[in-house]
Design a protein that fits this description.
This protein is an alpha/beta fold and about 130 residues long. Helices cover about 40% and strands about 30% of the residues. A hairpin with a 6-residue loop joins strand 2 and strand 3 (about 25-30).
């Protein structure tokens, strides 16, 4: 089963893809957040035979939904209308900052942040400790 990971941002949307076995996540693409984003994601899902989407659930330092979470919720509604495949929210916290730590030379790390979110989900789903994947 192949998964698509999404790190939703108001300016850019980071995408990651899993291997066919659903065990490893890889940075895939960075899209500008625009009206065409849904169509681009639909095309990617069809081309890569994606069966499930994992999207980061954005929270603040207190663990409460932040301002971006409202936009994510709207985005999920639209994705469900367009795709008709399962969409699962994965708790994430500071994934972009974590990606910047690992990708210091890259300006944009949204796809790496999406890979971190997706890998977190895959590890939990496959019952593998995070350290085992490093």
């Amino acid at each position: 089963m192949r998964y698509l990971g999404i790190d939703y941002g108001t300016k850019r949307i980071g995408l990651a893809i899993s291997d066919e076995g659903g065990t490893l996540a890889f940075p895939y693409a960075i899209l500008e957040n625009s009206k065409s984003s849904l169509g681009e994601i639909k095309t990617i899902c069809a081309h890569e035979a994606v069966e499930t989407i994992i999207i980061g659930e954005s929270m603040d330092y207190k663990g409460e939904p932040n301002i971006v979470k409202k936009e994510i919720d709207k985005f999920i509604v639209e994705l469900r209308k367009v795709l008709g495949i399962p969409i699962i929210e994965e708790r994430e916290f500071l994934s972009t900052q974590q990606a910047r730590f690992y990708q210091m030379k890259r300006k944009r790390v949204d796809d790496s942040a999406a890979a971190i979110i997706l890998q977190s989900y895959l590890d939990r789903k496959n019952n593998r400790p995070i350290l085992e994947t490093l």
